[in-house]
Design a protein that fits this description.
about 0% strand; mainly alpha; about 120 residues; 3 helices; single chain
Length: about 120
Amino acid sequence: MSSKIGGVDGNGPSTAIGAGRAVQRPQDAATGGTQNSQGSGGGSSVQITGTARQLASLEQAVRDLPAVNDARVAQISNAIEQGTYTVDAKHIANQLIQMDKALKDLPTGSPSDGDPEPDAD
């Protein structure tokens, strides 16, 4: 037994979903306008800040790294098993301080706040 469903309640006309409606074109995320296969008309432009460029390059660098450094994991596992693994607390503390300073040095304002970022170019 089969039945055609045309409307929400199943009793409406059996037309294709979306029939008679205008086709929506995908919007360009950068400009908010519809995509144009003939180029970017209308004179709109996209400006990428130095921070955005840096973030994009860092994201790519992270994508290029392996998820797990198998050789390093094996080396540390062997050292733990043999009882020769030592923790250098001073080195770890210095690394944490450096990371904290680097995070504090990042610009916090965004152009939408009216606080323009300095461009490193």
